[in-house]
Specification:
Blueprint lengths: L6 E7 H10 L6 H9 L3 E11 L9 H9 L2 E7 L1 E4 L5 E4 L3 H11 L5 E5 L6 H9 L3 E6 L10 H6 L2 E4 H8 L23
Parallel strand pairs: 1-2, 1-6, 2-3, 6-7, 7-8
Antiparallel strand pairs: 4-5
Amino acid sequence: MKDRKGKLALFVDGVKFHATAKALGFEIDYKKLLEEFGRRGTLLRAFYCTPVVDDLEYSTVRPLVDWLDYNGYMVVTKPVKEYIDVTGRRRIKANTDVDLAVCAMDTADHVDEIVLCSGDVGFRPLVAALQRRGVRVTVVSTLVSDPSIVADELRRQADVFIDLADLKPRIARTTPPTNREVDGVISIQCRPNT
């Protein structure tokens, strides 16, 4: 199938996409990910959504978030919240799904296609809403892992499904990222309140 050219935006569900790549045995080179989808059309914006722990002296996600912010990604973060549930157990709430959905809907009027890097079934209503607005939606996740990471409902709703395993040769990280800036990314503002 030949890829259709047009304006597109990339949305990465950071936690789930990282877990998907890890299940497939590799780390993603996020610069190569930009280049891969930049070849498929005019990449207007790339969003990376992730929860962060603010009160730790060192967070393993902080260096990645900082690098992404300087290298072509609009980084959307939300602080991890700690709470006590009704049974008295300590719980952690760390979810950026709503933030990603709001940014995707805000972006929909500016693009022909949205690429969603997540297999979470919770995004199926978002995909359907984007499609009703005339936006083509590509989902990137995997069927190869056991069990498969992509929800069947999300995969079936998408216009196109790309298995991350098929992208591995082109986007796997082989060297640490550098601080070179990525060209050709224009600004669409979406700063959710945290």
